[in-house]
């Protein structure tokens, strides 16, 4: 490909991005429900579209192609976030439900954990990393992640479970 045709393709792509930004952002916002996450989804899709631009632009409808990329990107993010981890036995007791008002209580309980346990809980349960990924990130063994996670969750349950006043006699 000559330098002139590459520049022409880049200019064509830039014009496409300018033209489609607002309508595609509306689509992305409806998909994710939040303008900031929608902009991120649209930017990610446009970055992935750039190397395919010549083929897509010759193929007919780059707008439809980008819309499909937005939908697929949204589905991929949803699946990554909703990844379930199967276990042989259900936990003894579930973590208490946390509503918006008790978010501060949860943050205080997390701060009460030692730093390594806090990091493990946040990486495992908030960032949804696997035990292996957490171990790699923290430079420890998977066994350490498992044991520290269990201790941290027990401590969080103790801190977040209301004490029954009648049981304290």
TrEMBL record:
One term of GO molecular function: DNA binding
Keyword Transcription annotated: yes
Cleaved signal peptide residues: none
Domain RNA polymerase sigma-70 region, first and last residues per copy: 26-83
InterPro entries hit by this protein: RNA_pol_sigma-70-like (IPR039425), RNA_pol_sigma-70_dom (IPR014284), RNA_pol_sigma-E_actinobac (IPR014325), RNA_pol_sigma70_r2 (IPR007627), RNA_pol_sigma70_r4_t2 (IPR013249), RNA_pol_sigma_r2 (IPR013325), RNA_pol_sigma_r3/r4-like (IPR013324), WH-like_DNA-bd_sf (IPR036388)
Keywords: DNA-binding, DNA-directed RNA polymerase, Sigma factor, Transcription, Transcription regulation
All copies of domain RNA polymerase sigma factor 70 region 4 type, residue ranges: 105-156
Superkingdom classification of source: Bacteria
Gene Ontology biological process terms from the UniProt entry: DNA-templated transcription initiation
Keyword field contains DNA-binding: yes
GO cellular component entries: DNA-directed RNA polymerase complex
UniProt similarity note: Belongs to the sigma-70 factor family. ECF subfamily.
NCBIfam families per record: SigE-fam_strep (TIGR02983), sigma70-ECF (TIGR02937)
Protein name: DNA-directed RNA polymerase sigma-70 factor
Originating species: Actinocatenispora sera
């Amino acid at each position: 490909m000559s330098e002139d045709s590459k520049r022409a393709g880049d200019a064509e792509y830039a014009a496409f991005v300018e033209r489609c930004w607002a309508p595609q952002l509306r689509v992305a916002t409806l998909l994710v429900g939040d303008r900031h996450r929608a902009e991120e989804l649209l930017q990610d899709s446009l970055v992935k579209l750039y190397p395919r631009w010549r083929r897509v632009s010759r193929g007919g409808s780059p707008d439809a192609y980008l819309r499909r990329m937005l939908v697929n990107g949204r589905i991929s993010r949803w699946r990554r976030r909703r990844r379930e981890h199967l276990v042989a036995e259900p936990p003894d007791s579930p973590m208490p439900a946390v509503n918006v008002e008790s978010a501060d209580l949860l943050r205080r309980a997390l701060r009460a954990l030692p730093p390594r346990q806090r990091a493990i809980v946040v990486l495992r349960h908030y960032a949804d990393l696997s035990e292996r990924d957490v171990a790699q990130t923290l430079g420890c063994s998977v066994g350490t992640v498992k044991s520290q996670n269990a201790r941290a969750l027990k401590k969080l349950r103790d801190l977040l479970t209301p004490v029954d006043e009648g049981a304290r006699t």
